[in-house]
Write a structure and sequence with these properties.
Blueprint (H helix, E strand, L loop, with lengths): L10 H4 L5 H15 L5 E5 L5 H8 L3 E6 L2 H16 L6 E4 L11 E6 L10 H13 L1 E13 H7 L4 E6 L3 E12 L4 E12 L4 E14 L1 H10 L2 E8 L12 E8 L4
Parallel strand pairs: 1-2, 1-4, 2-3, 4-5, 5-9
Antiparallel strand pairs: 5-11, 6-7, 7-8, 8-9, 10-11
Length: 259
């Protein structure tokens, strides 16, 4: 099954414990520090629109793109609630981050919650970063988080079981990872059991998400090939250098004037 197919229906419940507010504050601070005049933001792999809508709430003009129609439907529903409350709208478009073309540029591009790690092949990374460079204004800012290779290889992915529920639905998720060390990849199989509490019914489905972990030398080389200069490489939500326990790191880069 394609990642974020049926999974999209339960995405917000599955990540209801994620501290989105802290992430938005962190990303906004990075934008203010490195691109203080930024007004427009392109959100790659925007999912259900939580980051995009929060950034729009802060006054940015935000465009989000995602390949999942199910995720975009939820993003538009979330944005409609904001608009009804008097907020300026965001824009949500269906596109693949490897081959989109919007014919306009942005002051900042963000790719959050491991979007870049969903690009498993070198050709995927090259295509996506070419599109990013094309859509960034000169001196525009790129921020993306990603799995960090040394931590993945040191602590190794392990099976996990989590349960999530609200008044309507209960979800039991089994995550079974398979490390493909020679390819810098982890295949994570998600098996989900879902209870519809009103009907007393259960359903089951599975998806496999192929995740790529990255190393700093390849990130620097990738940025350089696409006219981007690194500004920061740290633990996610921190200014500390990533280490062997840092699964989630982030990179900030600026588009060179002459690129």
């Amino acid at each position: 099954m394609t990642p974020f197919g049926a999974y999209a229906r339960y995405y917000d419940l599955l990540y209801g414990d994620k501290n989105y507010q802290r992430e938005i504050e962190f990303v906004s601070a990075l934008i203010k520090r490195h691109a203080p005049g930024a007004k427009t933001i392109l959100d790659l792999g925007c999912g259900t629109g939580i980051h995009a809508c929060a950034l729009a709430q802060q006054g940015f003009k935000v465009t989000g793109i995602d390949h999942s129609a199910g995720m975009l439907a939820r993003a538009r529903e979330r944005d409609a609630r904001r608009i009804a409350a008097g907020s300026a709208p965001a824009e949500f478009l269906k596109a693949d981050i490897r081959d989109f073309k919007l014919n306009r540029r942005f002051d900042a591009v963000v790719a959050l919650f491991h979007v870049v790690s969903y690009l498993p092949e070198n050709s995927d990374l090259e295509a996506a970063f070419a599109r990013i460079a094309e859509h960034l204004n000169p001196s525009g800012l790129l921020i993306f988080d990603h799995w960090y290779g040394p931590a993945v290889l040191t602590s190794r992915p392990e099976p996990r079981l989590k349960t999530f529920e609200n008044t309507e639905t209960k979800v039991i998720r089994f995550a079974t990872p398979a490390l493909l060390a020679n390819d810098n990849l982890v295949d994570v199989r998600y098996d989900l059991l879902i209870e519809d509490k009103a009907l007393g019914r259960w359903e089951q489905f599975a998806e496999t998400h192929r995740m790529r972990y990255l190393f700093w030398p390849e990130i620097k080389s990738l940025l350089s090939r696409h006219g981007l200069r690194p500004l920061a490489f740290c633990e996610w939500l921190s200014d500390r250098a990533p280490g062997e326990q840092t699964w989630n790191a982030f990179t900030a880069a600026i588009r060179l004037e002459c690129a």
